[in-house]
Design goal:
Elements: E1 2-4, E2 12-14, H1 20-27, H2 33-45, H3 52-61, H4 64-67, H5 72-78, E3 88-91, E4 95-98, E5 103-111, H6 113-118, H7 120-136, E6 141-151, H8 168-186, E7 190-197, E8 206-216, E9 231-236, H9 246-250, H10 270-285, E10 291-294, H11 300-310, E11 314-318, H12 331-336, E12 342-347, H13 352-361, E13 366-373, E14 377-382, E15 385-391, H14 392-397, H15 425-433, H16 442-445
Parallel strand pairs: 6-7, 11-14
Antiparallel strand pairs: 1-2, 3-4, 4-5, 5-8, 6-8, 9-12, 9-13, 10-12, 11-13, 14-15
Helix pairs in contact: 7-8, 8-10
Length: 452
C-alpha cells in the first residue's frame, strides 16, 4: 500500500486501488468512504498515485472544522443571507464592520469545545490565542476578549460519569485558568462573558472565545497573497508534533477513546504571541506586507493554499526550511502540524530583508519558505524532492452534505399554577442565589485582567 518516494525519507506513494478503508485507518485520516473514493477518482484522472502528504492535506481541508461540509447548507439558509444594519466590509479570518469615518472594527468568535474537553487548560488557552490571531491578521489591534462558557453540573457524583468523561468541576477549573493565564499574559483584557451550567454539557463543555479589535481603514489587510513572485515568510513559534490532526479530531464525536487524541490539542505560548502581534501590526503599518494569515486549523497545509487561492494564484514551498521544535519529523507532520503562535506573511521580494530585520528586532524567528506562483496548485518540495502537487480548487472545494435532521418536539403542557408565596422569603432568596446559574461569578471574573 505504501511505496517510498525516491530521493527522500518518510514520504510514501499510496496505492488507492486496494482497500480504501485500510488506507484511511493506516494513515489516521478522517475521510468518509465517499470522500476517499472521490480522492481516488481525482488521482486516477491525474494518472498518478498520491503521496501520504497529499492525502493528509486533503484530510485537513475536508474536515468539518475547515470546510463546514455538514453545516454549510444550513448556514446558507439561515445565517449567511441575514441583512446587517451596518455594512459588512470583509468576511475573512475575522469580520470587518464599519465603526466611524476613520475606523473599522474586527470581530472574531469561535469555539474550542473538543480540545477543552480533552485538555481544559490547553484547549481554552489556545482558543484565546487563535481568536487573537484571527483579528490581528486583518491588521486590527485586539482590544477586548469575551468568553461565554457552558459546563455540566458541578456537583455531579463522580460515579455517575461515563468512562473517559472528565468531571465538570475539573473542566471548569482548567478552562478558566487557561483563559486567565493566556489573556492576562498577552495583555488583552477579558471584559465580558458568561458562565452557565446544564447536564447536557457534561463531558463536552462549550468554550466560546471572542475578540474585538480596531483598525484604521487604510490599515486593513486581507488574508490573500498580493501577486505572483511574492515571498512566503513564516514567523513566530517553531513547528512541532503538537496539534497534529487537530481539525479532524475537532470534527469527530467525543467518546471514551478520545483521550488518545491528546496530541491533537495545541500548546499555547502567550509569551511568544505578544511580540508576534506587535510585529504583525508594525509590518502592516509600514506597508511591507501584501497579505497575512494565521496558522490555525490544518497548519501550513491550509494557510499556504488559502492565501494563494484567495488571491487567484498558487504556491511553491520548500518544506525543509520550516523551523522545527523536534528533529526527525516526517514531512506530513510538518505540513499539517497546528503548533501555535505562527503567522504567514506574503511579501514583495524587494521587501524581504526589511521584514526579516524587523522580525529580528522583535526577537521573532522568521524564515522565507516559498513563493506565490501563477498556476493554482500547491507544490511542496522537501530537500529538492517534490512531495505534494495539488490542485487548489479541488483541495479547498470540499464536499457539502444536506444531512437529514429532526427538530425537537417540545411538549410544554398546560400552564403551571403560580407557586404559593414563600413562608420564609429570606431562605428562598438564599436558595436561589446558591444555584450555580444565579450565584455570583465574581470568583471567575476577577481572575481575568479586565482593565489593561
Amino acid at each position: 500500500m505504501l511505496e517510498p518516494v525516491t530521493g527522500t525519507e518518510k514520504v510514501y506513494h499510496v496505492d488507492l486501488e486496494g482497500d480504501l478503508t485500510k488506507v484511511v485507518e493506516n494513515l489516521g485520516l478522517g475521510l468518509l468512504p465517499d470522500e476517499i473514493e472521490k480522492v481516488r477518482k481525482h488521482f486516477l484522472e491525474e494518472n498518478r498515485k498520491p503521496t501520504d502528504v497529499e492525502l493528509q492535506a486533503i484530510d485537513q481541508a475536508w474536515s468539518e472544522h475547515c470546510c463546514y461540509k455538514s453545516s454549510k447548507s444550513i448556514l446558507e439558509e439561515t445565517v449567511f443571507g441575514l441583512e446587517s444594519s451596518k455594512k459588512v466590509i470583509a468576511r475573512e479570518d475575522a469580520g470587518i464592520m464599519e465603526f466611524d469615518s476613520e475606523h473599522y472594527y474586527a470581530v472574531g468568535l469561535e469555539s474550542h469545545n473538543h480540545p477543552s474537553a480533552l485538555d481544559p487548560y490547553g484547549g481554552s488557552a489556545t482558543g484565546i490565542g487563535g481568536i487573537l490571531r484571527d483579528v490581528v491578521c486583518m491588521g486590527a489591534q485586539p482590544i477586548a476578549l469575551v468568553d461565554p462558557l457552558f459546563f455540566g453540573d458541578l456537583d455531579l457524583p463522580r460515579e455517575e460519569l461515563a468512562d473517559g468523561v472528565k468531571h465538570p468541576r475539573y473542566l471548569m477549573g482548567g478552562v478558566v485558568a487557561g483563559i486567565r493565564d493566556y489573556g492576562n499574559r498577552v495583555g488583552i483584557p477579558t471584559i465580558a462573558g458568561q458562565v452557565s451550567f446544564h447536564p447536557q454539557y457534561t463531558g463536552n463543555p462549550l468554550v466560546t472565545v471572542g475578540c474585538v479589535g480596531m483598525v484604521r481603514k487604510d490599515m486593513m489587510i486581507h488574508s490573500r497573497a498580493g501577486a505572483v513572485g511574492d515571498v512566503y515568510i513564516l514567523a513566530g513559534g517553531r513547528t512541532g508534533r503538537d496539534g497534529i490532526h487537530g481539525v479532524t479530531f475537532a470534527s469527530r464525536d467525543l467518546d471514551t477513546g478520545s483521550v488518545d487524541d491528546i496530541g491533537a490539542v495545541q500548546l499555547g505560548d502567550p509569551i511568544t504571541k505578544e511580540p508576534l502581534m506587535h510585529l504583525c501590526l508594525e509590518l502592516n503599518e509600514m506597508k511591507l506586507l501584501t497579505g497575512m494569515k494565521d496558522l490555525g486549523g490544518g497548519g501550513l497545509s491550509c494557510v499556504v493554499g488559502e492565501l494563494a487561492l484567495d488571491g487567484g494564484f498558487g504556491a511553491r514551498v520548500n518544506l525543509e526550511k520550516v523551523p522545527l521544535k523536534v528533529e526527525n519529523m516526517a514531512p506530513w507532520e510538518i505540513w499539517v502540524s497546528e503548533s501555535q503562535e505562527r503567522m504567514m506573511f506574503t511579501v514583495k521580494p524587494e521587501d524581504v530583508d526589511r521584514v526579516l530585520a524587523r522580525c529580528e528586532a522583535w526577537d521573532v524567528e522568521a524564515v522565507p519558505i516559498g513563493e506565490v506562483i501563477t498556476e493554482k496548485r500547491n507544490i511542496v518540495r522537501f530537500n529538492g524532492v517534490e512531495i505534494l502537487n495539488l490542485d487548489l480548487e479541488f483541495t479547498t472545494g470540499g464536499p457539502v452534505y444536506n444531512r437529514p435532521y429532526n427538530l425537537p418536539d417540545y411538549d410544554t403542557g398546560p400552564a403551571a399554577p403560580l407557586p404559593e408565596y414563600p413562608a420564609d422569603l429570606g431562605k428562598t432568596i438564599l436558595d436561589l442565589v446558591s444555584q450555580p446559574e444565579v450565584a455570583s461569578k465574581d470568583w471567575v471574573i476577577r481572575q481575568y485582567d479586565h482593565e489593561v
